[in-house]
């Protein structure tokens, strides 16, 4: 990756569609670090505050007022030149005046840092937390003490729980297996029996009459038609 972008120049550079540039972020938090979309604002070289990619003193300097955007279209009016750009943090298209845009070289560390700042939610959450609360957690010591006091009892309790669970599971499996054997063998309290009554015989005849044609067409040879017709009659 090459060096930092060639930011900082306010010369009216002519951008082409598809190029990246730094544009004003608009409304940001009072701390001047987070844009209204939730992304980290960057300086005119593309580096956010405290960025690990910033090396030189100039790359660490604020103010942090910009976000990375991609140029979509050039507009030339009688007294002004502006562009339609798509912001990397919100994917929204908006107007950017040429005299407020800063060039960032493609593939440079400045472009990479600005691109990461547009989508780095973890760093945004950390910055917001640091801005909202500067006091340490007062209950951290209490939590650690309670955890240290309970740690010797965790092992024995888990051992007892595992032993009890295994014992209950083994007893349940044995009971289910015994009942299944009794059921399949027909032993008490279960029994197996076959009873044929007039009603069940008529039911079997109805089922035969309903499905014999489907069975004949699907599985039986044509030579069985005469025999099946005689049975149905």
Structure in words:
There is one protein chain. With 233 residues, the protein is α+β, with helices and mostly antiparallel strands. It has three domains: 113 residues, no CATH class; 48 residues; 40 residues. Helix content is 44%, strand content 13%. A hairpin with a 5-residue loop joins β3 and β4. The N terminus is likely disordered.
Radius of gyration: 40 Å
Low-confidence stretches: 1-10, 121-136
How is the main sheet built? Answer: 5 strands, antiparallel
User: Which shape, going by the Cα principal axes?
Assistant: elongated
Oligomeric organization of the protein chains: single chain
* Number of distinct beta strands: 5
Strand content: 5-15%
The number of helical segments is 6
Question: How is this fold's topology laid out?
Answer:
Blueprint: E1 20-24, H1 57-60, E2 66-76, E3 81-87, E4 93-97, E5 102-103, H2 109-119, H3 121-132, H4 140-185, H5 198-219, H6 225-232
Antiparallel strand pairs: 1-2, 1-5, 2-3, 3-4
Give the tags.
3 domains; 233 residues; 6 helices; disordered N terminus; five-stranded antiparallel sheet; elongated; single chain; alpha+beta; 5 strands
């Amino acid at each position: 990756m090459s060096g930092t972008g060639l930011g900082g120049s306010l010369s009216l550079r002519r951008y082409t569609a598809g190029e990246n540039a730094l544009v004003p972020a608009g409304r940001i938090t009072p701390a001047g670090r987070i844009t209204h979309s939730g992304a980290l604002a960057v300086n005119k070289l593309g580096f956010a505050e405290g960025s690990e990619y910033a090396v030189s003193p100039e790359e660490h300097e604020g103010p942090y007022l910009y976000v990375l955007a991609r140029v979509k279209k050039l507009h030339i009016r009688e007294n002004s030149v502006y562009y339609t750009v798509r912001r990397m943090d919100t994917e929204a298209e908006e107007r950017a005046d040429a005299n407020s845009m800063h060039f960032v070289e493609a593939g440079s560390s400045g472009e990479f840092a600005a691109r990461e700042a547009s989508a780095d939610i973890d760093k945004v959450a950390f910055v917001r937390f640091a801005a909202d609360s500067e006091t340490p957690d007062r209950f951290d010591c209490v939590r650690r003490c309670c955890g240290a006091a309970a740690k010797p009892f965790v092992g024995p309790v888990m051992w007892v729980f595992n032993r009890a669970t295994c014992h209950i599971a083994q007893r349940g499996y044995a009971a289910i297996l015994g009942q299944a054997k009794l059921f399949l063998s027909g032993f008490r309290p279960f029994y197996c029996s076959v009873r044929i009554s007039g009603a069940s015989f008529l039911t079997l005849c109805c089922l035969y009459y309903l499905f014999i044609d489907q069975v004949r067409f699907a599985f039986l040879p044509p030579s069985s038609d005469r025999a099946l017709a005689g049975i149905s009659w």
